[in-house]
Amino acid sequence: MPLVHFDLIEGRDKESIKRLLDVSHEVIVEAFDVPERDRYQIVHEHSAYQMIIEDTGLEINRTDNLVVLTIISKARPNDKKEKLYSLLAERLEKHCGISPHDVMVSIVENGEADWSFGLGEAQFLNGKL
């Protein structure tokens, strides 16, 4: 955990998506101090007309290279969240050619009882994690 959903406008090739996922995972490992194999990522691709992501009055100009990350996670300190936002913007631009204007992130927090990694168990509650 965390579980990361990527909403993208369709049209990226497999290599670009893999690089996006790899770079994002590296950032999450660094910013949130999670284990390397703690990787749960799902990509959703949409037609451009199915994603309306405006700028909330911040003068942020978006393109079809837009990436919306929804990160579902246990609570994290604000400084780790700010580090995540900064590193994502920096590294996605450097390694994937995605402008910081095209990176939007929302973190949805939940608790230990809200996770089952399989086997019909709550691993955080039963002590396996």
TrEMBL record:
<dbReference type="InterPro" id="IPR037479">
    <property type="entry name" value="Tauto_MSAD"/>
</dbReference>
<protein>
    <submittedName>
        <fullName>Tautomerase yrdn</fullName>
    </submittedName>
</protein>
<dbReference type="InterPro" id="IPR014347">
    <property type="entry name" value="Tautomerase/MIF_sf"/>
</dbReference>
<dbReference type="Pfam" id="PF14552">
    <property type="entry name" value="Tautomerase_2"/>
</dbReference>
